[in-house]
Amino acid sequence: MRFLFDNESFSFETLRAAGFANYGGSDLGEVLATAARIADGDEAAWHAEWKKTAERAEVIGERSLAEGHRVSAREALLRASNYYRTAEFFLREHPADDPEVTELSTRSRDTFVRATALFDTPVDAVEIPYEDTTLPGYLFLVDDSGAARPTVVYTSGYDSTLEESYFAVAAAALRRGYNVLAYDGPGQGAVLRRQGIVFRPDWEAVVTPVLDYALGRPEIADDRVALFGYSLGGYLVARAAAFDDRIAALILDDGIHDFHAAFAKAVPPFLGDWLHEKRDDVAVPVLTLLTGVSTQLRWALHNGVWAMGAASFGDLIRGTRDYTLSGIADRITAPTLVMDADQDHFLQGQPQLVRDALVNAPTTLVTLSDTEGAGEHCHMGAMFRAHQTMFDWLDTTLGTVRG
């Protein structure tokens, strides 16, 4: 699917921004107008134009709030948060030292927090103990009754942010009577940007304290906690589920058995051989040349070096071999929904490998197709269809179907 751009990355990220319109994260007219001002593949224009749109939406939100229009303010601030995230996306040359990355991510977070203060349902900003620090999170509650409810614990992916969780799952969950606990883990969102903590493959070390926190909240029903993994989170939560039996259900959107496969697919086979042999003296210069012609590869490599704490492109690609379910998938026993997108340009075929590996878990594989507009990675642009699939399955699995 191509959406407004021929450049694959620009098309997908625009579809991602537009697809959150279902839950107030964008307005189609704003998306179309912004995209029209950006030349295909022009990353500087992408940054500038999405920032302008974000700032315009933020001003609308501030003015509406000052005039007492709470709903209008909430809607505009939610859009601003998503647009600021989108504006920051391709700034990956030196992200750790780029003040614009800091500004845009901060503004995305701040506009979201201001929007949540205007929600009709409670949102608690939380800090989850983790090793010698804390992980930031949001607990989205169905109501303020204090009743223990089924809860989805959300883990995001390779480039997601905590604030994106509302559009990715929380809004849909709240409508169906589920609380959502979302958090930034190592390598993600504010944990990467503010604390400099990078990804780790042994995600059970992250999910264990998150579940400890969740199960200490009276609003969360101990026996009805589901893990939801978004993009790379599909690997991360599956890995964690192999080591924790407190999980009532597992949703992988989409299923990932071997994250390294995404990088192996993106480079010529001879480069894979060189990297395996650690011939970085020849492999890294070729990778650098390839980043000049592929927006997707350039972004993926630069983002990975930052988020995974790699010393080089070669170090990054070799390091992704640790992100695999090989040897541990048979430990997963929780009922599992494996989502698959038939035109996934990152991880095609991975959900089937997960399904085959989960020999001790009741597993359902659902493929959503391009013919129904749901064939992109994480079903971008088809959020209602994806959420219908996920929550219908979860309702049945947890016994929470309502008449």
Automatic annotation (TrEMBL):
Belongs to the AB hydrolase superfamily. Pfam families: FrsA-like. GO terms for molecular function: hydrolase activity. The lineage of its organism: Bacteria, Bacillati, Actinomycetota, Actinomycetes, Pseudonocardiales. Signal peptide: none annotated. SUPFAM superfamilies: alpha/beta-Hydrolases (SSF53474). It comes from Pseudonocardia xishanensis. Keywords: Hydrolase. It comes from the Bacteria. This is Alpha/beta fold hydrolase.
